[in-house]
Amino acid sequence: MNRRQFTKFSRRLTRVLGEGGITRLGRTTGFTHRLREVTPHRMAIALLTSLSCYSTKTLADILRVFNALADRSVQYKPFHTQLAKPAFPTFTWQLFEHLLQHLVVRVLAPVPGHALRGFDAILLQDGTSFAVVDALRDTFPGRFTKISPAAVELHATMSLFHDQAIRVHLTPDAAGERQFLPAPGDLRRKLLLADRGYMDVAYCRRVHHAGGSFIVRFQTKINPVVVRALVGGRERPSWGGRTLDTLRARLRGRSGDLLVRWKKTDPPFRLLLLWNRRRKEHLALVTNLPSDAFTLAAVRDLYRLRWQIELLFKEWKSYANLHAFRTANPSIAEGRIWASLAAALLKRFVAHVTELVVRDVDISTRNAAMAFRYKATDLFKAVLQAHRVTHRFRDLVRYLADNAQRAHPNRDRTKGRLATGLRPIRLSVSGAYLLKN
Fold first, then answer.
1. Contacts (Cβ under 8 Å, ≥6 apart) of 421
2. DSSP 8-state symbol, 183
3. What tens digit of pLDDT does each residue of 343-389 get?
4. CA distance 132 to 324
5. Cα(270)–Cα(288) distance, rounded to whole angstroms?
6. pLDDT tens per residue across span 225-249
7. What confidence tens digit (pLDDT) does each residue in 245-286 have?
8. How far apart are the first and last CA of the chain?
9. At what angle do helices 3-16 and 88-102 cross, to 10 degrees?
10. DSSP H or E stretch at residue 10
């Protein structure tokens, strides 16, 4: 283990989860005015413990963890009163943002000489939704009113280099998705991957003019004008100036790399039509990546990286209790969602630290999320008592190093996310620098 770097991470974790900072969050958000039994620090650590280590379905589950950790005997009614405060979701949202600001570390980088070295970041955009109790239909109306009258959606932007969500918005499920895309001006020297729910030619145009890059899946029914066409390795000069609809029959069964425009004044974008033999249909990807640096196959493989955000959502729901909670109180429901996200973020941070500081270990964040609970309760107790935090953190990291490794690391380098030119960042045993967020 790289002890020097581990110590830096341990100090960071101790500072972020320390009583002083979290108490300030409680005061500035209006969640706490006077420190009594249910202090902001005890509440935060109890929430993180309950949601990361146990199956949590009711408020009583959190209360039991709170009393066990803090060695208190708080009753249900006063505990409920604290969580029912309108400031509770603001407090847990700020807790999540607090962790997001300090516990996100870079874990992947392109190999030297790869075209991806030209990007400061690769961002994945998507959303995930789930139902909440029907009594919350006025606060969180769902899209499918007969099946789920009340539902929420989390709109997330994930950094592939950091393997972590870096921005999350919580809305009713009925809200639109595109408004939560990153601002085009923020995408300079960055690559955005998004599915067809975000197809928007005007947005792509603004990203292009801002110096950003994108790969966005579009519906196949689009009908731009073809400027140039490359099909089957051959250029098709006669296709220039024709609309896509007039060429569909000739493209059937084949993949094509087309240069297209929607308007005469638009910059031309590449439209990649990838033929799926099993489904007998095309997958349409629109990008402004140059064809000399990114072939059709390379763009296809890069777009597959978008699956990483789906895996993140699965971890949130499976291992951080991100699901419907038995409460009709909107403050409790929303506050618990932000607390679940904070718990999930903390789990990934520990998994990333393990891979960074332990030599020759490839960590699965899913396996780490499952194994986390067996040693994490000792860490949370140490944090609450401000005693032997580094020792307990070291125990957890060593445990994950032994019990959360990837099952097939060599295969992942040839078929997984690393096949696109990315490699894990290793902090050497001596003299390694701590990567900035």
1. 110, 111, 114, 115, 116
2. P
3. 999 999 999 999 999 998 999 999 999 999 999 999 999 999 999 99
4. 5
5. 6
6. 999 999 988 899 999 899 999 999 9
7. 999 999 998 999 999 999 998 899 999 999 999 999 999 999
8. 21
9. 160
10. helix 3-16
Q: Determine the pLDDT at residue 411.
A: 82
| 226's tokens | 């073809």
* Ordered strands of the 213-218 beta sheet: 164-172, 151-159, 121-131, 190-194, 213-218, 281-287, 269-276, 256-261, 225-231, 234-235
**Integer Cα distance of 393 and 415 in angstroms:** 33
Of 335, 343, 344, 216, the C-alpha closest to 271 is 216
The upper half-sphere exposure of residue 323, i.e. CA atoms within 13 Å in the direction of its Cβ, equals 13
Report the C-alpha gap between 426 and 233 in whole angstroms.
39
Q: Provide the β-strand partners of residue 380.
A: none
Buried b (16+ CB within 10 A) or exposed e, 91-130: bbbbbbbbbbebbbbbbbbbeeeeebeebebbbbbbbbbb
3-class secondary structure, 424? strand
Tokens of 436: 């900035």
User: Tell me: the pLDDT tens digits for 28-77?
Assistant: 999 998 888 999 999 999 999 999 999 999 999 999 999 999 999 999 99
CA–CA distance, 221 with 244 (Å, rounded to integer)? 9
Dihedral angle sign, alpha carbons of residues 23, 335, 308, 304:
negative
DSSP state at residue 199: -
Question: pTM here?
Answer: 0.93
Q: If you search the block for the tokens 């899913």, which residue do you land on?
A: 366
- Provide the 3-class DSSP secondary structure of residue 68: helix
